[in-house]
Specification:
This protein has 432 residues and is mainly α. The protein contains 18 helices and 6 strands. The mean pLDDT is 95. Bound molecules: carboxymethyl coenzyme *A.
Amino acid sequence: MTDKNYILENPDTGEKFFLKKDLGSIGPSVLDVTSIYSKQGIFTFDPGFAATASCKSDITYIDGENGILMYRGYPIEVLAKSSSFLEVCFLLLNGELPNQDELNNYEKLISDNSNLDKTVLNTLKGFKNDAHPMSILSAMLNSMAAFYHDSIDINKEDQRNTFNTNIISQVPTAAAAAFRHITNKSFLGPDKSLGYCENILKMFFGEKDSEFKFDPISSEALNLLLILHADHEQNCSTSTVRMSGSSGVNPYAAISAGVTALWGPAHGGANEAVINMLDEIGSIDEIDTYVDKAKDKNDPFRLMGFGHRVYKNYDPRAAIIREMCHKVLEQLGEKNSPTLDKAIKLEEIALKDEYFIEKNLYPNVDFYSGIIYQAIGIPKSMFTVIFAIARCAGWLAHWNEMIKDPLTRIGRPRQLYTGKRKRNYLPIKDRR
Ligand code: CMC
């Protein structure tokens, strides 16, 4: 390895060649393999992209070894303590924190655009009440793609800005519509006199023509959870938004693809899976059995809310959520929460267990978030929907970055083909 290049030998030809090293502002450097196939005739192999940087990005930095997460250079702990979710959206989308005037204007812009068109709301009619709200949300976003299909040119900045605004403004309204649909309640539109989180709570839990009362801790907790989930660099759903967006697809459809990718239990669906797991663990005495199941190679069971591709240390978001979890339960008068007790005990046991220590498996962002959602009255199937409201900020920031990046090409990985070589076609009468 020289200062700038990495020297390799082509295993097929024995030829020595260089890979250019590129440096980021912090974090590991990369070896540029873009010409390795055209010059050397070989592909690189990296299932799950564990060691592959798919793009250059200015948005979010994670140091998984040291449990560090920063949006645009600001540590997550500082943003969680001092910001509102809309401030964080502004930061992610524009690169800088807003001043007071900018924030006031942004809040007004988001609030003013929060109504959903009737045709988008009508999407609900195609769903039974027992549908999963993630499928409804993803369909509503596709319906938005249909609604805005002839009025968006992704090459025009003003149209991209309108798209950004519509997503941040209207996805909470779509999420609330999905929630009311699955709980058999009629749709309650946005209240533009309220802040972002208060409005979400009202659209979820409010009643028509009656004053909406909510505990301030609920909106404080929601604001915190939205900030912590807002972005996480090239995770599965964000990479999905970038990948689908790279084909030039209608961007509402790219966000819908992100929602779909987020739904899985290995990704955003873990918050729902954690509560299912804690419910399944009947009592604290049964925790050891579940820890043993998680360690058993022949059992597919995993401790949900544990482990992370990037963090090999405590997920900094989990530490913040854990603290908020205690505060919420205390303030909502649920001091004795069997679910929280089980979670704390499970964490304690796992963190002392050789298997989890050796594999660097720590609680992640989803381990405690479901307990907070439950305490503020949000049902399990909606947890990942809230995650999606938050992650829209990151998806948009990455989609915009990708569109403006001169290095962007359609995402098109290669493969190591391991199938049959060419063979002769037998007419059906000759096949056995
Ligand atoms: N319980 C038990 N064993 C685990 C767990 C777990 N939760 N997570 C990983 N392992 C083991 C795994 O069996 C493997 O063992 P071995 O090396 O002996 O084969 C080793 O640890 C590495 O696991 P991996 O699956 O190769 O790691 P990955 O980076 O591909 O997967 C993960 C990361 C988050 C999908 C995984 O840890 C997991 O399935 N966790 C549970 C689901 C979860 O909580 N997901 C939310 C992630 S945070 C929210 C988000 O950003 O989406």
